[in-house]
Amino acid sequence: MSITGSRWRRTRACQAALVGLTLAALAACGSGSGTSNASSSDALAVPQPGSAEAKTVKGTVNWWGWSPGVSVAPLYVKAFNEAYPNIKVNFKFYDYNQYSPALRTGVGSPSGPDVFDLEPGGIARQYGRFGTDLTPLAQKVLGSDWKDKLSPLGADAFTQDGKLKALSVGSGGAGTLVINKTLFDRWGLKPPTTLDEWVSTCKAIKAKGKTCFVHGAKDAWVNRDLIQAISNSIAPGKFAKAVQGQAKWTDPDLVQALSVYRSLFGNGIMQPGAAGITQYNDAQNKFMAQDAAMIMQGTWELGNYKAQAQTAGIKSAGVSSPKPFVEQLVPLPDVAGKGNKPYLFGDPDFGLTVNARSKNQRAANIFVAWYTLTKQGQQVVADQYTQVPSLKGITPATQGLVDPSVQVTSLRNLGTQVQNATEHRQVAYPDLMTAIGDAASALASGSKTPQAAAQDLQTASDGVSR
Amino acid sequence: MKTVALTRHRHEQSTLTQHRAGRAAKGSAPHGPRRNNVAGYLYVAPAVLVVVGIVYFAIVYTLRISVLDWDGLSPDPVAVGLDNYVRLVEDAVFWRSLGHMAMFALAVLVQMALGLGFAILLHSGVRAKTLYKVLLFLPVVLAPAVMAPVFRQIFDADGELNTMLRAVGLDALAHPWLADPSTALYALITINVWQWTGFSFVLYYAGLTQVDASLIEAARIDGAGNWRVISSLLIPLTRGTTVTLAILGVIGTIKTFDIPYLVTGGGPARSTEVLATYLYQQGITDFHVGYGAALTVVLMIMSLVLTVSQVRRFKLGSEA
After folding, report:
1. Which helix (H) or strand (E) holds B135?
2. So where are chain A's domains?
3. Does pTM top 0.90 for this prediction?
4. Residues in chain A with pLDDT < 50?
5. Are B197 and B111 a contacting pair, CB within 8 Å?
6. Rounded distance, CA A343 to CA A217, Å?
7. Which residues of chain A approach chain B closer than 8 Å at the C-beta?
8. Does position B146 have pLDDT exceeding 60, yes or no?
């Protein structure tokens, strides 16, 4: 059978198309150098926010991160565009647990981010190498004494080999509980200050048909916070020392901390099935829906002091007619009766870095500088309450709070504590972080004793190269 | 003359026909063999590029990095020979994950039995068959990311399962299913069976459609009951479907990742860890890319061995 005429031409056209598609696919695989064309002095030309030059500078910034979240990021972008109307910012949100895998493949790719979040600890250690040194940017915007103008936690957390790999947006502190003060007041309860009070408070709350303390023990990070907070109430600072290899995990104080943590799952404080639910959003939704009266969260929860933000959170929890309630952050009870004053431990919640392969260096630098080094950007950070701003001298506005009579004082006290915090929260060593998570999970399920869990932690710690 | 011309014409036609037949027998295209081969190569080129360029390259690359101590990002990986494989043999979590995978594999039998049962039922005189088919197949097409928080809620201490158990007086069975290491794996297996039974059902339903109804009629006339018809007729006659499902089920078990990862994260206390979640944690979360690659190589070898042995076994069985 012969192929003639139009059918022959169609066949040849199909073959040519297939070859073309294959070649195009191969070209796409190998394309992209990822390096910026702008000279470094051009890239650092950051016009003052709102100036005439700021209104003319153009560019596009692709920003990847898990924070500040899908609902809050547009606020920052909008505020940024008031100062720099012609720089387009596209925020790509990743769930925290998916962020590192996404960054691993994206950070070196031509379609990767221009700006990306870095978390102190493992993520900063691994991915900081892909960011530019932001010291010149900080010097350009704040002057040679830039370090004195920023919170010390931030520069310390993101400096690697003498280079500033990210600029902190703001810091958060952990070691607090969040109570539903509306329910507490309704039932005549006070925040517990000892372990026994915590147990009796929980009995009272359960008698009212609510969960006392909801905890997403499936998530290793929140267990780590709880164990560190318990440790600090027993022996302040020893947990952080053990992370750095300066104390043994088998130290009796730390074994006691693990033991107290384990006891929470059996003495009526922790809700049944805690190890099967996540902190976000399973546990948080129960708290926001007012099914639970207490949860462990840090100062990032302060955002829910604002009625608008909290209402959105309650609605996300599935409540059809959301009505704000008063949240209040309170110290963790003195669970071991040692009488140590509770304190916050923290880190920059996240920092922003500029991808060294970005083709939009100038626009990226402008965005990062506005967000982290200018009063305008940092005021937006402060006013969200979820982080304490990195730039000193910024105080948050206090409009829109659910109950200003309680929450203004709380907000200011906690902000001061975070600004003065010196103990780090993030564990910089992935193996040790995994081991702490495994130990917490084993203790929660009762499959290991505190002594055995402590030994596992020591073994993991011994294998870490510091 | 006319006769001669006609004969010659017929001879020419016959010769031409023979010539064409000969060329056809040789398999040659009317425009030449070389052009036809080139066209064929061009058609398969994209698929070959994908398979060779991505799949086989990835396999070789994984083998290469499995002998490195590397975080996947630094420019200076360290060659460590077979250390990653030695570590793997001594790794208790690795062996535990294999045990969990074996449990998932056994659950494939449950999926197949349920799928066959539903297929037989729906081949009977049941009303609203289409609705049942949709309901059975729906879990197969639901995304695990959508199902995971739903099942965490269902299996929660205050979840719907426990509420139902308490409602029917089975309070003693109410349990935080996903928070207890002794029950979490079974909860995940239940989710897996729920998700994939529909797939078995669809294949068995199609297989039963091929069964000659006269065989069943003859068996009935001979006095065969339901169970005899199923065991002596339907099961043997759907052997091909069973083999296919067994092979796919084993491969699927080895690759199991989404449900353990999304629902329990491999916990509590590693009680639901499977090889895929473990190698993900090692390679991605903990930045032990070399060790993760070694685990991947083991997973690949397991898949190959099990698949090849099943295929050969069932082929040999049918030939006998």
Report:
1. helix B129-141
2. 40-171+348-389, 174-346+412-462
3. no
4. 1-4, 18, 22-39
5. yes
6. 22
7. 1-3, 11, 15, 18-19, 21-22, 25-26, 100-101, 104, 122, 126-127, 129, 211, 217-218, 271-278, 281-282, 430-431, 434, 438, 441-442, 444-445, 447-448
8. yes
B296 touches A at CB < 8 Å: no
State the pLDDT at residue B184.
Answer: 96
The per-residue pLDDT for range A216-243, each reduced to its tens digit, is 999 999 999 999 999 999 999 999 999 9
Contact with chain A for residue B90, Cβ under 8 A: no
Q: Sort out which chain A residues have CB atoms less than 8 A from B43's CB and list them.
A: 15, 18
- Residue A287's Cβ-count burial label (10 Å; 0-12, 13-18, 19+) is buried
Contact in structure between A283 and A217 (CB atoms under 8 Å)? no
Does domain A40-171+348-389 fall under CATH 3.30.2350.10? My reply is: no
- How much is the pLDDT for B7? 46
Contact between residue A230 and residue A335 where contact means Cβ atoms under 8 Å apart: yes
**A407, two tokens:** 């929450």
**A118 φψ region: left (φ > 0), alpha (ψ -120 to 50), beta (else):** beta
Q: What percent of chain B has pLDDT over 90?
A: 65
pLDDT at residue B203, rounded to an integer: 96
Same fold, A40-171+348-389 and A174-346+412-462: yes
CATH of region B86-319 = 1.10.3720.10
Q: Which of B43, B152, B286 comes nearest A282 by C-beta?
A: B152
Chain B residue numbers with beta carbons less than 8 Å from the beta carbon of A126 are 71, 73, 287
> Residues B259-274: pLDDT tens digits?
999 999 998 999 999 9
Residue type, A104: R
Q: What is chain B's mean pLDDT, rounded?
A: 86
Note the Cα A379 to chain centre separation in Å: 19
Q: Which residue of B has its CA nearest to A3?
A: B30
Q: Which two tokens stand for residue A126?
A: 């691994």
State the nearest Cα–Cα gap between B264 and chain A, in angstroms: 7
Which among B45, B155, B177 has the least Cβ separation from residue A18? B45
CATH class of A174-346+412-462: alpha beta
Residue extents of the structural domains in chain B: 2-79, 86-319
Give mean pLDDT, residues B103-127. Answer: 93
